[in-house]
Amino acid sequence: MRAQAAALGYYIGENAKTTRAFLKKVGTTRPIQEIDVRELNVNTPPGEIDRLLAPVLAGTDAGLVSEAGCPAVADPGALLVRRAVRRAHERGVRVVPFIGPSSILLALMASGMNGQSFAFNGYLPVDAGERGKRLRELENLSRKANQTQIFIETPYCNRQMLDTLIATCAPSTLICVAVDLTLPGETIVTRTAANWKKAAAPELLHKRPAIFLLLAS
Asked: Residue 23 belongs to a domain with what CATH number?
């Protein structure tokens, strides 16, 4: 797979600078400056998707680089993947998924929660009241289905999210907070809501990328 990635001359990534940095680490068979790198992120207009796909539909092999490590999973590349795969199947174009770390799945693996049934819910409402309401819904769903509920938050709002979880969830509900996954400061902690209330540590969450998981009994 590494050899295939190194040979590609066309890449789509969330950020051109970090995509080129990734290619330097992978190693390429041609100079980096000769590789066509285009951006796809939250600021990309929907109409640009077809422009990005045009070389692929014309027969050019392309690579999609995700900042999250796993295209289509909590990733701006999801729209491209969905549209590209649909067209690829229609036209007989081969789609090859390359393995990459997904912080969502890594958090689930280390949380001690149910990995046989889980749901990723993206970002929860910003409004405190709506966020609490949504968390109660997810907790009830988790309890009924024995299903791990997973969601994310922006680093600056992590503390508010944990405070809402502690205040909203039943004392016995398990809450996992996983921060800085795959980084030197990686920290993954699972406690009941009651124990988080006793031991919640602000420094754990301060401006650090985090995944939240809950499992209600």
From this structure: 3.40.1010.10
DSSP 84: H
- Say if 65 falls within a structural domain: yes
> What angle (nearest 5°) sits at the alpha carbon of residue 205, between those of residues 114 and 201?
90
Sign of CA dihedral 135, 140, 143, 144: negative
Q: Which of 65, 91, 117 is the last residue of a domain?
A: 91
* Separation of alpha carbons 61 and 163, rounded Å: 47
pTM of the predicted structure, to 2 decimals: 0.77
The tokens of 182 are what?
A: 């795959």
Residue 15: give the domain boundaries. Answer: 2-91
Domain membership flag for residue 165: yes
pLDDT value at position 202?
Answer: 61
Euclidean distance between CA atoms 48 and 13, whole angstroms: 14
CA neighbor of 65 nearest in space, from 125, 115, 24, 110: 24
Residue 156 near residue 207 (C-beta atoms within 8 A)? yes
How many CB atoms sit inside 10 A of residue 187's CB? 16
CATH code: domain of residue 156: 3.30.950.10
Mean pLDDT of the chain: 88
Q: What is the mean pLDDT of residues 24-40?
A: 92
